[in-house]
């Protein structure tokens, strides 16, 4: 009870009034006074974090599951749109086998640790147009190694769609409606190790 009263008093009273009161309560040594000096700052910091959700890491989307650390599964959820936010430390994101028709890319831009993005088995027909002046489709995904876009309805990929994917090593596009690929599609992808597609002329 004594400790709780002391903590509450420190939090509610100004700093300059603490020392006389703590001395009255028997808190006179240097360690006790040092604690009194830092406790108001500590409580203020904790209170600020509590009332400032902007600093909090977004939770697992309600339409998905997060079975492992840094892993988000949104498969077979009949999704027609991509959830707006994901935990910022996500490394593996599976959005396969839904009813997605387009990818805007804004949902992924905060996922700088993302290493694998799976969008296979959807109804995606085009990838958002991007050029030198516009934000790139996968902008911010500097850690992405594997990108799965296979078994969609993609019939054309705009130039520069994969700009910014500086770590990309595997790209899967098989099972789409692609007949040709623009020469500038992979102009900024320098270390692509494996590229899987089918049906190209």
UniProtKB/TrEMBL annotation:
The record's section on Pfam families has: LRR_8
Asked if the record carries the keyword Cytoplasm, the reply is no
Output the Gene3D superfamilies linked to this UniProt entry: Ribonuclease Inhibitor
Q: Where is the signal peptide?
A: 1-23
Q: Which residue range or ranges hold the LRRNT domain?
A: 59-92
ATP-binding as a keyword of this entry, yes or no, is: no
Which InterPro entries does this entry report, sorted A to Z?
Answer: Leu-rich_rpt, Leu-rich_rpt_typical-subtyp, LRR_dom_sf, LRR_TM_domain-containing, LRRNT
- Key words, A-Z: Leucine-rich repeat, Repeat, Signal
Sorted alphabetically, which SUPFAM superfamilies does this protein's record hold? L domain-like (SSF52058)
Q: Which GO terms describe its cellular component?
A: plasma membrane
Q: Which SMART domains match?
A: LRR_TYP, LRRNT
Question: What is the protein name given in its UniProt record?
Answer: LRRNT domain-containing protein
Naturally occurring in which organism (per UniProt): Dissostichus mawsoni (Antarctic cod)
């Amino acid at each position: 009870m004594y400790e709780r009263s002391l903590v509450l008093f420190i939090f509610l009273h100004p700093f300059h009034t603490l020392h006389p009161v703590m001395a009255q309560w028997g808190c006179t040594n240097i360690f006790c006074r040092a604690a009194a000096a830092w406790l108001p700052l500590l409580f203020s910091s904790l209170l600020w974090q509590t009332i400032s959700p902007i600093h909090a890491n977004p939770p697992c989307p309600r339409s998905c599951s997060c079975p492992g650390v840094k892993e988000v599964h949104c498969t077979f959820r009949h999704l027609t749109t991509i959830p707006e936010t994901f935990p910022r430390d996500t490394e593996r994101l599976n959005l396969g086998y839904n009813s997605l028709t387009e990818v805007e890319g804004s949902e992924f831009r905060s996922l700088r640790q993302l290493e694998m993005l799976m969008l296979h088995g959807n109804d995606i027909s085009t990838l958002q147009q991007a050029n030198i002046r516009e934000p790139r489709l996968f902008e911010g995904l500097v850690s992405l190694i594997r990108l799965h876009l296979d078994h969609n309805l993609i019939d054309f990929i705009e130039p520069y769609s994969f700009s910014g994917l500086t770590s990309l090593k595997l790209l899967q596009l098989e099972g789409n409606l692609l007949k040709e690929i623009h020469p500038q599609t992979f102009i900024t992808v320098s270390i692509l190790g494996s590229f899987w597609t089918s049906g190209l002329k």
